[in-house]
Hints:
With about 325 residues, this protein is mainly β. The chain has a domain at about 15-70 and about 80-235: Sandwich (Jelly Rolls), CATH 2.60.120.10. Helix content is about 15%, strand content about 45%. A hairpin with a 2-residue loop joins strand 16 (about 205) and strand 17. Zinc ion (ZN) binds near residues 99, 101, 119, 170 and 176.
Amino acid sequence: MGNEGKGLLFLDPVCKHNIWGGVKLREEFGYQVExxxxxxxxxxxxxxxxxxxxxxxxxxxxxxSELWTEHPELFGNLQYDRYPLxxxxxxxxxxxxxxxxxxxxxxxxxxxxxxxxxxCWYIMGCRENAxxxxxxxAKTEAELKEMVGEGRWTELIRExxxxxxxxxQIDPGTVHAIKADTLILETQQNSAITYRLYDYGRLQNGKPxxxxxxxxxxxxxxxxxxxxESVESISNLPENALNQxxxxxxxxxxxxxxxxxxxxxxxxxxxxxxxxxxxxxxNGTEVRKGDHFIIPNGYGKVEMNGxxxxxxxxxxx
Length: 317
Ligand code: ZN
């Protein structure tokens, strides 16, 4: 395969309107979408609720889901029945409702064969002294049920401090929520199954949004992983190297901070890449903050120049 940047698959993302969204994804990242309630950019997605479109080259105009089906060789001929990942940028201008996701086994049985949802967050930006909701304070299943039943939310919900450059893995069963003024890059399984546990008693159009208490109680892990184990700072990685920051059964995530030039071999089934900050080039093709692209299977040597930070992800063969 030619190495002139031609083989890169750039995506036109799908943006989402959310009551907690804002204007940053248009004004800072340049996504062409109207409205002052833009909460999510599904940058690399083949999900039916937001299937990205190839922006360039011989596959221009194709949906990512179509490309996955018609050209499995671009992704290393993997044994998955759909493109396995979903990469999003989330701009929260208000607190999100507190949620939990099921694992594959629970989702298969209770959600029409959907995948469960394991996800992880890289904190791209937040206010000073910011916090995030991760985990809970119930020690036993019985205590969890009691606290939920009695509405002892402030006692139950665990908030922990975060800073730009933190990485957070959210296994199925983890209670979690983003607070206002937080910008994140999310890498997750290709799934949209979410159970809403608590919405701070807020109303939308005069009514509370639906909660999924029973399903939440079914899937919440008790006790939760410790606060210390939940957040990891990755703000001091070596420059110009493809740093693996996390790997689990569902994905492997990398970060690269290019300052000058960097090169690595694309030896993975595929690499899904998002430019978080700055600008530069990939094998001669210009990229900037907000661009999302896939480096296909067999691409060979990847050469990056400029001043930019990217998060990349792939899956096991
Ligand atoms: Zn989630």
